[in-house]
Amino acid sequence: MLPRFTFVLCLVLAGCSATPTKDDSQQEALQQRLAQDAELVVAQQKALEAQLAELERIEAEPSQPFVLGQGDIITVTVFEEPDLTVERASVRPDAMVSVPLIGDVLVGGRRVAEVADEIELRMARYVVRPRVSVRVEELRSVEYLLYGEVVNPGTFLLDRRTTITAAIARAGGLNKGNYRASTIEIADLRHAFIARDGRALPVDFVALLREGDLRFDIELRPGDQIHIPSGLSREVYVLGEVTEAMVFAYQDHMPLSRTLSMSEGFTPDADITRIHIVRGSLGNPTVIVSDFKSVLSGRERDVALEPGDIVYVPPKALVSFSRVMDNILPSLLAVQNAALLGRAANK
Fold first, then answer.
1. DSSP structural state of residue 338
2. Element (H, E) at 157
3. Adjacent-strand bridge partners of 194
4. In Å, what is the CA distance from 56 to each residue of 50, 66, 139, 211, 324?
5. Residue 72 · residue 136 · CB < 8 Å
6. How many CB atoms within 10 Å of residue 115?
7. What's the Cα-to-Cα distance from 168 to each of 145, 172, 185, 217, 329, rounded to whole Å?
8. Is the pTM for the entire model greater than 0.90?
9. Terminal Cα distance for the chain, rounded
C-alpha cells in the first residue's frame, strides 16, 4: 500500500494531466482551423469542377449554322461557264449579290448551299444543267465585341480561330495605370464576363488571366461579348422592375435601402419581397435575396452593397433563379453599352 502522501500526490498529478493546458487549447484551435481550411479547399475544388463541367457542356452545344452577311466576300463559279463566274463579290447592305443572267440574288442571312441551289435553279432557264459552287473568300460579317479595360476595345472580325486570351491580346492587352510609382493593371477581373446568346458563360477570368488556367480559355463564337470592367469605377447597378435602369458610383457604407431610394422608383409589377443582389462573377455568382418590405419595417437587416453589385428587382411572376439570371444579363449589357456610347460621345 502506498503512503498517504504519495497517494495524494498521484491524484494531483493525474488531475493535472487531465486539465487542458494553454498549449493544448491552442493546438486544438489550430487543428480546427486546419480542418475548416481543408473543408474550404474541398468546397472550392468541387465548385471549380462544377463550373468547368458546365462550361464543357455549353461548349459541346452545337453552334448556330453559319449564314452569310453584309460585307462577306464570295466567289460564284458556274462549271464550264467562265463568263458567268463572279469573282470576289461583296454582299451588299441590301443582302444581295448580282449574278450574270439572273440578276440580284438574296445572299445575306442564308447558308452557302442555299445560295448555290437558288442560283442553279434560276440559271437553269438559260444554261443546260448548270453546276454552281459558292465559295467564301472573306468573312466580314462574323464579329465579336470586346469592351472595357483593354487598350483597343471594339468590334472585331471573327475571321480566325480566336480564344478569350487571343482576343484580349488582339485588343492590345489589359489597360494599365500608375499607382505609387508602379505600373498596375486596372481591370476588375472578378467582375469580368463573357456573354453568349443572352447568358453569361461560367468563365473565371481571375483563374484564366491571373493563374493561367487555360481550361477557361474557350473559343469565341459569332456575337460573343466580353466585358472587362474597371477596378477604379466601383459601380453598383440597379436593374429589373424599376422605372429606369441606373448605375451608381459606389460609396462607402452604401446600403441597399439608400441605393433603391436614389433610383426612380418601382414598376407596378415589381416584387420587392425578393430583391436579388448578384455579387462577384456572373459566371459563378453569389446571390443574396432581400425582402425589402421587411427591411423597411425593421424586421430584416439591410444589406451592405459592394462595388460591382447588381441589384435586380424581379417581376412578381418570376420565380426561377435561372430565369432571373436570363433577365439580368440583357439589362446589364444595355446599361453598359449606353454608358460606353456616352463616354465615346464625350471624348
1. H
2. strand 154-157
3. 226
4. 10, 22, 27, 19, 23
5. yes
6. 23
7. 11, 7, 13, 11, 21
8. no
9. 99
